[in-house]
Design goal:
transmembrane helix; single chain; globular; 9 strands; alpha/beta; SIS_dom_sf; binds 2-amino-2-deoxy-6-O-phosphono-alpha-D-glucopyranose; Rossmann fold; four-stranded parallel sheet; SIS_dom; about 50% helix
């Protein structure tokens, strides 16, 4: 670790209201098209495969969770693109394959779309622009535009699509409050980042020298444990940072906990909350080095109460982004620095 005087000048990016809200306008406009495609495809499709790497795959995890919870009559399965091509699941004319990639250039995701070209199924890409290789290789696309906010943008578009499919096919009653709440989400991200900034800075000071962090979450909130733990701290800070499902905590992982072990616990308002609360009670007994982030602490202005559990993972993500920004400043390690990804052959 470099000392204060030698530390390279990396600064936590300020919270830029216009960049966040402006960066999500493309996704908000496209969500109406996503709803229309959902209504059109609902009677034509029986199986939905959700295919993406990294963060898009975890956005899809939240969709898969809510579709199971709604007792959907669709068969739904989520895949990593590389695995999707080796498993080659059933693909027929009543199969919809949704491929998500923020950049639209991730090789495995583009290869999966190419692989599907001579199959009878429907393909739908969710990505930035129509020039993206993924959009070119897919039959249809939902586009978010060029944006730094593609993570939440992908959620907005995919959740609108899935909400519409669920309403048309299974009579899901929450589409209208969902769409209203998605309109409010960009402002909520700014609100949540601002609300957490001071605490995030304090947490970054407290945990600056820790190189190992565990993240505990359940249900759809596991997406946030993964994106924060792996995409942000492992990939962007080179920390040993491990997300664990709360439902699995008592089946091995809890043996690692001692009084020095830092754990980030993420609590949402979805049905998995009691699983995380049980893990929290245990952690409080054996360690004082816990960071508890709870969506109940966030007002989510403009979000319908019934939709809070659905958007909760993205609200905590916005709050935790501040923690990553402040850690990057204290580590002198910019969030864009990679040693292998996009730099070497792999
Ligand atoms: N942290 C994310 C990864 O999770 C993701 O795999 C990669 C490619 O993502 P995409 O296919 O959305 O462009 O981008 C970032 O590095």
């Amino acid at each position: 670790m470099t000392s204060q005087t030698e530390r390279p000048s990396v600064r936590a990016a300020p919270i830029d209201h216009q960049r966040i809200v402006g960066g999500l306008q493309g996704a908000l406009q496209t969500k109406d098209q996503a709803v229309a495609i959902g209504q059109e495809l609902a009677p034509q499709v029986d199986r939905i495969y959700l295919v993406g790497c990294g963060a898009p795959n975890r956005v899809m995890l939240t969709l898969e969770y809510w579709m199971a919870h709604a007792h959907t009559s669709f068969e739904v399965k989520r895949y990593f693109p590389a695995e999707f091509m080796t498993v080659t699941p059933r693909l027929d004319e009543r199969t919809l394959v949704v491929l998500g990639s923020k950049s639209g250039t991730t090789p495995e995701t583009v290869q999966a779309a190419e692989f599907l070209k001579d199959k009878p199924c429907l393909t739908l890409a969710v990505t930035g622009t129509e020039q993206a290789p993924l959009a070119r290789a897919s039959q249809r696309s939902l586009l978010m535009g060029e944006t730094e906010q593609a993570h939440t943008g992908m959620f907005i578009v995919l959740q609108a699509l899935i909400g519409s499919l669920l309403q048309a096919r299974d009579g899901w009653p929450l589409l209208e409050p969902l769409l209203r709440s998605l309109d409010a989400l960009p402002g909520v991200l700014v609100e949540s980042a601002e609300l957490n900034d001071r605490r995030a800075e304090q947490d970054a000071r407290t945990y600056e020298h820790d190189r190992i962090l565990y993240h505990l979450a359940g249900g759809p909130m596991f997406a946030t444990a993964y994106v924060f733990g792996v995409c942000m701290l492992m990939e962007m800070q080179w920390m040993h940072s491990i997300p664990i499902e709360a439902a699995e905590w008592f089946h091995g992982p809890f043996e690692i906990l001692d009084a020095q072990t830092p754990v980030v616990l993420l609590l949402g308002e979805d049905p998995s909350r009691p699983l995380v609360e049980r893990a929290l009670t245990f952690c409080q007994k054996y360690s004082a080095r816990l960071m508890v982030y709870d969506t109940l602490d966030y007002p989510m202005t403009g979000v319908d109460p019934a939709i809070r559990p659905i958007v909760g993972p993205f609200v905590l993500q916005a709050a935790l982004n501040r923690f990553a920004e402040h850690l990057s400043e204290r580590h002198g390690h910019h969030l864009d620095t990679r040693r292998y990804m996009w730099v070497t052959e792999y």
